[in-house]
Amino acid sequence: MTEPLLQVSDLSVSYRQGLGWRRVVEGVSFAIRRGEVLGLVGESGCGKSTVALQLLGFRHGSLRTDSGKISLEGTDVLGLDRAGLDRMRGAEVSFVPQNPTTALNPGMRVGAQIDEILSTHGRESRERTREMFGLVGLPTTDDFLRRYPHQLSGGQQQRVCIAMALACDPRFVVLDEPTTGLDVTTQEQIVDLLVDLRARLGMSMLYVTHDLGLLSQIADRIGVMYAGQMVEIAPTDDLFADPRHPYTRGLIGALPRLDSDDRAVKPLRGLLQREGLPQGCPFAPRCDFALPRCFEEPQKLARVKERHDAACWRVPDLPPNSAPASLKGGIEMALERAEPLLSVQKLSVTYGSGRRAFRALKDVSIDVQKRETLALVGESGSGKSTLARAIAGMLVPSAGVIRLRGAELQSQVKQRSQEQRRLIQFIFQNPDASLNPRATVGRSLARPLEFFFPGNTEGRAEKIREALAEVRLDAGYAARYPDQLSGGERQRVAIARALIAEPDLLLCDEVLSALDVSVQASILDLLQRLKSETGIAMLFISHDLAVVRMLADRVCVLFRGEVMEIGSREEVYSPPFHPYTHSLLEAVSTPLKKGGAPRSSRVLGTASGFGCPYAGRCPVEIAGLCQTEPPPLRQSGRGHAIRCHHSLEELDKRTRHARREDRQTHENHES
């Protein structure tokens, strides 16, 4: 066995808190070999990003390294001075951040940003910059190199960050949630790119994420962290097939599955409470198998089988891992197709004017029944959020009609009646931005009561307590500020703020995308329960088709502002598919889905702008027709419709043939 490229030994890190220090990483050890990818997973606040940044020698003023050693091919990273770190960063170890929009300099052209890091390390710049752009699948023209970050899509921005990280041929790359927030097709492209670069360049990586399904596609081994400690580490296939630590079992059980018809997940019990951790195992307060000894005795990683370590003394006594128990939070009902709660007819939205006009939505028609959840899915730029904002009165449509309870709504929210505004409530993707940081939770929840029920001043405190209880938060949270809450708790407050207005319709815009898998499961369970208990209707926007399958009654697939497919959950997730729907389903990260083979279903290109918006990317495009003629909306007769020039029978046949080809390709690749 050769010496590892990177060795982390007994790493402990603390952050300053008030007059003292709080330990956030405790005794973490792992090694990464040359050419190996180690995934690091865990809930928000578990310390995984702190560990990742320590590999680059990150030293914040409020951070201290209490113990441990990080060795990169014999170099003591923690012992380097600033000059040594500057020489190491970029040349020997590099970093790909979570958010490329904030990581890239908005005032510099993207080509110049690659030039800068090359010149810093004494490398020839411009030709190498072109080479790196080509390596990550970006255009190498002068025009593209001279673009600013805001002129690129999210996926292109992330490719620029990857090109920057690889420009000086580092031996080791740290990736901190590099695909969080990207739509499923863009995420698939970035992951495929990383897999390809690793195969060609032999890079070693630490890949930090909360997406277990994604890690199963790229990581050789996975380390699981909880409350600053490594609780399990094992080869990827082994971890998913036979997880040994109760926390790992909980994470895998909380993972939405596209390949399951069960509409329930099993959220982990409780939340990570750093203040109340026991002296022994930090997971004991949430563990279904904990005994009194677990609360008292600290647990260390120990070998449970070949190359598989877990920090739990109860491993030999645990029952075999099984599928999560069904909570059946979703509701199956025969929705009467009477007058809908919400009706949108031929809605179009245009940004800008004149030659710079861009049509974000084109003739979109949908309806939402009472007690129904309609999901909007599609990649970034498909018009999902634009449609929700137009329904909420935050954007003025250029054409079309929106009706609520049969009454036509004015375009702007300020022109609508107070009752109409109350009946539609918006839950935003990022509660950090939507909650007032200077207002307590109680004050934020009081505002809708004051606005929509001004005469009812008595009982407001009780209403706030009830709203918090409805989202599983105790009354004490009313006195807290947003920065005193976790990401999942802030999202629960945002949901409570919407519900306290007693609406008929919730507009949920990517409310789960930034949450780790266990918090996501608890919010998903909450939404399922609210739907079952209150009968509230939802327009649920997401790019996660596995989550959508668990929550939605019907699904609408958007691409470049047009409806490509719409129907019940069962119809949209079964053949025949629109070719774009098929590509979205194929791009979903599923645990233990084998990758590495060419994907025949994804064809990159650009649409002509005249015919089908998916022309140029469609693998079954009809030459001379799809580029020039708008496709018809083909009805199945059961409320299921697909916008395509191919007949439904032809699409069904092609889909089944493509699936057989994909299976054969993967089998050949594995053999």
Domain module count: 4
- For this structure, what is the CATH homologous superfamily of the largest domain? P-loop containing nucleotide triphosphate hydrolases
Please give the share of residues in helix.
Answer: 25-40%
Using DSSP, what is the number of strands?
24
Strand order of the largest sheet: 6-7-8-3-9-10-12-11
Number of helices: 23
**Termini Cα gap:** 26 Å
User: Major sheet: size, sense and barrel closure?
Assistant: 8 strands, mixed
CATH class of the largest domain: Alpha Beta
Structural class: alpha/beta
What CATH architecture of the largest domain would you give? 3-Layer(aba) Sandwich
Topology:
Blueprint: E1 6-17, E2 20-32, E3 37-41, H1 48-54, E4 63-72, E5 75-76, H2 82-88, E6 93-96, H3 100-103, H4 110-120, H5 126-135, H6 142-145, H7 154-166, E7 172-176, H8 184-201, E8 204-208, H9 212-218, E9 221-226, E10 229-235, H10 236-241, H11 246-253, H12 292-296, E11 302-305, E12 308-310, E13 342-351, E14 358-368, E15 373-377, H13 384-391, E16 399-404, E17 407-408, H14 418-423, E18 424-427, H15 431-434, H16 441-452, H17 460-470, H18 487-499, E19 505-509, H19 517-534, E20 537-541, H20 545-551, E21 554-559, E22 562-568, H21 569-572, H22 579-587, E23 633-635, E24 641-643, H23 648-670
Parallel strand pairs: 3-8, 3-9, 6-7, 7-8, 15-20, 15-21, 18-19, 19-20
Antiparallel strand pairs: 1-2, 1-4, 4-5, 9-10, 10-12, 11-12, 13-14, 13-16, 16-17, 21-22, 22-24, 23-24
Helix pairs in contact: 4-5, 5-7, 7-8, 16-17, 16-18, 18-19
